[in-house]
Amino acid sequence: LTSSPTSPGLHVIHIAAEMAPVAKVGGLGDVVTGLSKSLQKRGHLVEIVLPKYDCMQYDQIRNLRVLDTVVESYFDGQLYKDKVWVGTVEGLPVYFIEPLHPDKFFWRGQFYGEHDDFKRFSFFSRAALELLLQAGKKPDIIHCHDWQTAFVAPLYWDLYAPKGLNSARICFTCHNFEYQGIAPASELASCGLDVDQLNRPDRMQDNSAHDRVNPIKGAVVFSNIVTTVSPTYAQEVRTAEGGRGLHSTLNFHSKKFAGILNGIDTDAWNPATDDFLKVQYSANDLQGKAENKAALRRMLRLSSADVGKPLVGSITRLVPQKGVHLIRHAIYRTLELGGQFVLLGSSPVPHIQREFEGIASQFQNHDDIRLILKYDESLSHSIYSASDMFIIPSIFEPCGLTQMIAMRYGSVPIARKTGGLHDSVFDVDDDTVPLRFRNGFTFLTPDEQGVNNALERAFNYYRNNPESWQQLVQSVMNLDFSWDSSASQYEELYSKAVARAKAAGHP
Ligand code: ADP
Question: What domain count does the chain have?
């Protein structure tokens, strides 16, 4: 193990449970990679620490090799050896920790959803800090994400700063407050944290159960910077309705709490270079988009009798957060309005999966509706490129990426005004928004009436003003959803925290 070379920029180390494309479940994986790539381009030294899962996409890791030195980390009163691997993912240096613990924490064939997730990730959080200490790293920022690595914040201040890993400020990003990792307080002792000290109302104690600890709350209390993934969601979680029990904690710590909208990977999502597409295209050459629409119709056996029929797309996890009942309603309403609808989605919730399987078979040979109930990266690119409109009726949405990807491919979003959708989709009829920012159709109330109103306005616009519609398509394709501006906001928060520490005389 060697310490990292000095760099003129900041030294940022992400400790996370996901990183796209090697270990991705959802948006968290995209953020770790997108933000890191953008910060690296700006001259910062960025490293990532991940668990070494058996189910990773190993073909996406370059130069994977095991280090000679073994790290020993504490758990349940003993020291366990961890093998440490290094490799390069998307040009970024990544450390992979393989615990030699008999429970084989990361040899489970899946990333999450195990009965002992609290143990697995509190172990990993401690092992990651142990690695940084033993490697002599002197990062400026340690950035942890979601409840799985929230333990890093209290572990750092209570155990690792006293041991000498004390150069860093801690940044914590919560990608979805729905998932808090709450567990019986006694479980915190396994990773060496002091249960009596931490199971207190002003520290890690869950706000509604006094014998339970809440890792997200712990990270909010113990981090120097706390962020979530859009400005509107940051406001929403500070209210009793939106905070999932943490609103009072977030309000108390509001000075260090900010919402920063995620970007998308504009290299991976680029219709001008996208190899998944039948025909590549750009805002100045929309003929290619029409050819992709024709190709998708052929592939899915949808009618091509009316070339001008608008095609509505939806690509989503089918979970209550995404407004599944409104997606279902939008399918039927689109049919009534004379459009076509393509849904690509799958559900971890058995009764929702069954319900949509029922709808899928109802429309199996239909001319205008197709439901494909699986995860399919390639098909997702085809649908973004082929669709004219893209519906996202979420009940809540911390950031949401599909509206941004849809726009990049010239599909106009129809979205509920919540969270990150509120920060990225602006209604074409909203006079309070400057014209150049208006890019879609929105509704506020999450009910059928709301969906109908936005969908009908979109259809009327499409049919009655084809030229304006084309201009709208071109203008949404030209919007900038790259990581550049978001990364510069993180950079500013990091730099301010580092400067504050220096001013206060910290190392
Ligand atoms: P969340 O992280 O809550 O699922 P986001 O909008 O942040 O929602 O990100 C969703 C990502 O997953 C997008 O890149 C979208 O294209 C992709 N996705 C969702 N469902 C599918 C699917 N069934 N097949 C392929 N890609 C999907």
Answer: 2
Give residue-wise pLDDT tens across range 403-452: 999 999 999 999 999 999 999 999 999 999 999 999 999 999 999 999 99
- Give the position of tokens 């709301």: 450
> Residue 401 CA: which ligand 1 atom is closest?
6
Verify that 331 and 396 share a domain, yes or no: yes
The answer to whether position 275 is within a domain reads no
Q: Give the Å distance between the CA of 195 and the centre of ligand 1.
A: 37
CA distances from 90 to 22, 131, 488 (A): 10, 22, 20
Structural domain of 434: 287-481
User: Cis before residue 21, ω within 30 degrees of 0?
Assistant: yes
Mean of pLDDT values over 253-277: 96
Answer yes or no: are the C-beta atoms of 216 and 222 closer than 8 Å: no
- Cβ proximity of 62 and 89 under 8 Å: yes
CA of 352 to the centre of ligand 1 (A): 17
Residue 316 Cβ inside 6 Å of ligand 1? The answer reads yes
| CA 318 to centroid of ligand 1, rounded, Å | 10
In this predicted structure, the answer to whether residue 1 has a pLDDT above a threshold of 60 is no
For the Cβ of 398 lying below 6 angstroms from any atom of ligand 1, the answer is: no
pLDDT score of 131 more than 90: yes
Label residue 2 by pLDDT band (50, 70, 90). very low
Whether the predicted interface score ipTM is above 0.90: yes
Q: What is the CATH number of the domain that holds 363?
A: 3.40.50.2000
